[in-house]
Amino acid sequence: MKVLNIHKRRVNQPKAQIVELFRTLASENDLMLATHKWSPMKLDQGLQVGSKGGHGPIKYHVVAFHPEERIVFQFDLKGFDGTHEFSIAALDQNSTELSHVIDMKTSGFSTLKWIFAIRWLHDAFIEDAFDKVENYFSASKKRSEWSFWVKLLRRIMKPKKK
Asked: Which of 41, 95, 126, 144 could cross-link 55 (Cys pair, CB 3.0–4.6 Å)?
């Protein structure tokens, strides 16, 4: 199945301010991803081409990195053939567009995983990340609501306490 999943958010800050946050991606002080709600992104060599890692069960490696524009990851999962990318673009002097794009083909059981679970969780993950970036610069905190389906999936998938 062909998948093109696009998220965009306008942030009323100059691009240079967003780039500073972007450079913390996958670090101990990640200011891009909502690591207080989701598994952190880990990359074995940091933000550079060839670095391998992922977040939670989703595995990938970096195939392109332009520190002030974008980072592109190639999926390393059976049944997921494609990429996902974060990019930053200045809209004007005081506003920037953040975007995240998944462009892939799924096959076999992975198509069902995408349709019924991963897509929903991914969408919430990205919106929470964009909220975190926007909230970094704002006193009034934005919080995207999770759907019933996301809440249910997170409850089902939550590790059991021993």
From this structure: 41
